[in-house]
Write a structure and sequence with these properties.
The structure is a single chain. This protein is an alpha/beta fold and 223 residues long. The protein has one domain: Rossmann fold. The protein has an 8-stranded mixed β-sheet, with helices on both faces. The termini are close together.
């Protein structure tokens, strides 16, 4: 069983698209997809709506998506081919309390792919992908905290690839990491799919990316 985490420096830069693209490119993984959302004060974790309650019932919520044609991010996972799709919601800063639920979902999966930055505090995935877009200046503290854990960077073809786009972010945290560019409409890339497959040791991937400008070299491992 393998675990992939997809994060990014802020919202609306294509993280869900990259998740869906990986799922669609590698259906043999029989993915269970999990989206983790942390809400701020005044928003109910049960449904994401404004709420003044502070009860334990509204601190953590987990729901399974069953509509592949719906408009939610979790629907996109199913539409891309995930076997199961879940949305985990918790209050900001209380992800630790939700982790038993997350671990249970992962334990029941053949392979899991998780959209989150902060989950890296609690999980050591087999692969961590980080989505970047230099057109968006915002860089969340949670994203910066775990940027060094990224195994590869992912950008859409229309994104700005610049290590100088974010004030306070050391270029050294980004420089030298493998970069993959995905189509902005499908969020897919054959090179990214091959990289993911190789790192997770599937029969489809016999090669591993060894450098940004290098070539592929044999490095297959079993799950």
């Amino acid at each position: 069983m393998a675990i992939v985490v997809v994060g990014g420096h802020t919202r609306n830069i294509g993280k869900t698209g990259v998740m869906a693209g990986v799922i669609a490119s590698l259906p043999e993984f029989a993915w269970t997809a999990i989206k983790i959302t942390q809400f701020g004060h005044g928003v109910c974790s049960a449904n994401g709506e404004p709420c003044d309650c502070e009860t334990a019932d509204h601190t953590i919520a987990v729901s399974e998506e069953r509509d592949a044609a719906g408009g939610k991010d979790t629907s996109r996972y199913l539409g891309a081919g995930a076997l199961r799709s879940f949305w985990v919601r918790t209050r900001q800063g209380q992800l630790a309390e939700a982790m038993p639920n997350v671990r249970k979902l992962i334990a029941g999966a053949e392979n899991a792919i998780v959209e989150s930055n902060s989950v890296l505090r609690f999980l050591k995935p087999d692969l961590s992908l980080f989505v970047l877009d230099g057109r968006v200046n915002d860089f969340k503290p949670s994203a910066l905290r775990y940027l060094d854990r990224a195994d590869a960077l992912v950008l859409t073809a229309d994104a700005v690839d610049s290590e100088e786009s974010w004030a306070g972010v050391s270029p050294r945290l980004i420089a030298g990491k493998p970069r993959f560019t995905v189509d902005p409409t499908t969020f897919r890339s054959s090179e990214l799919a091959e990289f993911v497959a190789s790192r997770l040791g599937t029969p489809a991937g016999q090669m591993a990316w060894v450098s940004r400008n290098g070539k592929f070299a044999s490095n297959r491992r079993t799950l």
